[in-house]
Every structure is written in C-alpha cells, then in structure tokens.
Amino acid sequence: MLIPCLACESRFRPDEYFSACSDYNRGMDLVSWTCPRCGNRDDLRVLPGELGFGYPHRGRFDVHDRVRVPGLRRQRGDLRLDISLDRASWRVPTRLRQPA
Ligand SMILES: [Zn+2]
Predict the structure, then answer these.
(1) Taking the model in full, what pTM does it have?
(2) 100 alpha carbon to ligand 1 midpoint, in Å?
(3) How many domains does the chain have?
(4) What domain range includes position 74?
(5) What is the pLDDT along the chain (100 residues), one digit of tens a residue?
(6) Which residue in 35, 37, 40, 55 has a CA-CA distance of 20 to 30 Å to 16?
(7) C-alpha of residue 48 to centroid of ligand 1, in Å
(8) Distance (Å, rounded) from C-alpha 96 to C-alpha 25?
(9) From the CA of 33, how far away is ligand 1's center (Å)?
C-alpha cells in the first residue's frame, strides 16, 4: 500500500506518509501534511479506511478527493489525533497557539 502526494505524485509507504503529518486541527478535523519530496503542504482529513482531500468552504472543509487506505483507523483526542494502520500508529499533536 503506497499513498501518493497529490502534487508531485510521489508515493510513500504509510510510515513515511503519516510521519509527515503535523498539527491536528480539531475544529476542522484536519491534519497538515508536508510532502517529504516536493515540500507541498496540504490539509487532509483522516477517515476510517480513507484520506479526504478538499478545500475550506464557508468555515467547513469539503472533501472532494478520497484516497482509499484499507484498514486505516483514527481516534480523536483532546490535543491530538491518533492514526493507526495494521500494527503501526502515529500521533499527530495539536500545535498550541499562543493567546493573542
Ligand atoms: Zn509531493
């Protein structure tokens, strides 16, 4: 199972792909992803069995493209998202913003 970068079409093993996730946005239910190959930054939603890509729209995030990742699971925490696939798991923390 390889997961593509939608910008440069490089394909990554799950460990490489999910290790490149950062900053879980709980309100929008999105993680940031930075391609290790081309540096493209994308926001995506981790869903059971798939990844959702799309665009923010009127304060929501509309998923337009889906990439199937069979067996993908997710669990939302207070300040993190836990992603698991097969026996591996990754933790994406929420980056705390300094109060203005
Ligand atoms: Zn890329």
Answers:
(1) 0.90
(2) 33
(3) 1
(4) 3-93
(5) 899 999 999 999 999 999 999 999 999 999 999 999 999 999 999 999 999 999 988 889 999 999 999 999 999 998 999 999 999 999 999 988 766 6
(6) 55
(7) 23
(8) 10
(9) 10
Task: Output the CA 59–ligand 1 centroid distance in Å.
Answer: 26
Distance (Å) from CA 86 to ligand 1 centroid = 24
Q: How far is the CA of 69 from the centre of ligand 1 (A)?
A: 18
Residue 99 counted as domain residue = no
